[in-house]
Design goal:
- This protein has eight helices and eight strands; from the N terminus they run H-E-E-E-E-E-E-E-H-H-H-H-E-H-H-H.
- Helix 3 crosses helix 5, helix 6 packs across helix 7 and helix 7 crosses helix 8.
- With 303 residues, it is an alpha+beta fold.
- Helices cover 55% and strands 20% of the residues.
- It is rod-shaped.
- It folds into four domains: 42 residues, no CATH class; 116 residues, Tetrahydropterin Synthase, Chain A (2-Layer Sandwich); 45 residues; 51 residues, no CATH class.
- The chain has a three-stranded antiparallel β-sheet, covered by helices on one side. Strands 6-7-8 form a three-stranded antiparallel β-sheet, covered by helices on one side. The protein has a two-stranded antiparallel sheet with strand order 1-4.
């Protein structure tokens, strides 16, 4: 019976002597309530009942915080800030001067302390900027407060890896007002684009119409020149057939009349008034020739 008691005491003694520190962790060892040393990861031995260990996590942690601030144009906003930090483990051999020692013995609530520093840094940055500047310079603001807070937290044994402003929220009435302003600007820009497009379309159409009219006018002019040349050549030909000028003109006018009647016939159903007696037509041509041959008043020329 006494042997079993001794065996149990030995097992308890062994278990209380050895301890294991996990990867990415360290252990602060206190002897009789006083800091003794920092143990890295692995298996270690301590003095039973005299040494006490405290586990310190070295992995990077993430915290999300919300702050309110007022911009220079008097708009109160809410900012969601995300921070990543970890215990400084670069100088553990220095004992009480190491980041591990400072993180355990100098701050009771490291997260609350970082939040206070971040709030102070943000409220010194936001009031100097308008609402538009806060949105456009969000990364610059985060970098600025990161530098300020990181320097302060390093004195407590914490390394601030990064600070991000993940969201900026506005009061509902301000959000609605901004949406209305943006919509108005977009509508104005759209109306300007439509007006410019309509103006360009009108100018192009006018230019095309002017060019078409110029081309049509040139075509008509060329056509009239060609007709005049043809008439002149026809009259010259008729004159060469032993006819005087009056007979030549009469023959030409009669052939023109025949051509006109043929064009009426080819265009379909058209109504043409003709004299009952075609001898009257002959008299009409006689009158036209006589009119052309009649003497003109002085100062005028014959057509």
């Amino acid at each position: 019976m006494g042997f079993f008691i001794i065996l149990i005491l030995v097992v308890i003694l062994v278990l209380s002597t050895g301890y294991v520190v996990k990867q990415q962790h360290v252990a602060i060892v206190e002897r009789l309530g006083k800091f003794n040393h920092i143990a890295p990861e692995g298996f270690h031995v301590k003095i039973p009942f005299l040494d006490i260990t405290h586990d310190i996590d070295l992995m990077t942690e993430d915290q999300h915080m919300t702050f309110d601030a007022k911009t220079s144009d008097n708009v109160t906003i809410e900012l969601d800030v995300s921070i990543q930090y970890h215990v400084d483990s670069t100088n553990m051999a220095s004992g009480s001067d190491s980041g591990v020692w400072k993180s355990y013995y100098t701050l009771k609530d490291s997260v609350a302390q970082m939040k206070d520093y971040l709030a102070d840094a943000l409220r010194s940055q936001i009031p100097n900027r308008t609402l538009d500047e806060v949105f456009s310079e969000k990364d610059a603001i985060a970098q600025s407060i990161d530098q300020v807070v990181a320097a302060k937290m390093l004195g407590y044994g914490y390394v601030l890896v990064t600070t991000l402003i993940t969201s900026i929220r506005l009061p509902k009435e301000v959000q609605e007002s901004m949406n209305h302003i943006i919509a108005s600007k977009n509508n104005f820009a759209s109306a300007q684009n439509d007006a410019n497009a309509a103006r360009a379309k009108t100018v192009i159409a006018a230019q095309a119409k002017a060019e078409a009219m110029a081309a049509e006018g040139k075509g008509i002019a060329d056509q009239r020149i060609a007709i005049a040349k043809g008439i002149k050549e026809s009259i010259d030909t008729i004159k060469g057939a032993e006819m005087d000028a009056g007979e030549a003109n009469r023959l030409f006018e009669f052939t023109q009349w025949i051509d006109m009647m043929g064009q009426f016939a080819t265009k379909g159903s058209s109504t043409v008034v003709l004299p009952e007696d075609f001898e009257a037509t002959s008299g009409m041509f006689d009158q036209m020739v006589a009119a052309k041959s009649s003497p003109k008043p002085e100062g005028t020329t014959q057509a």
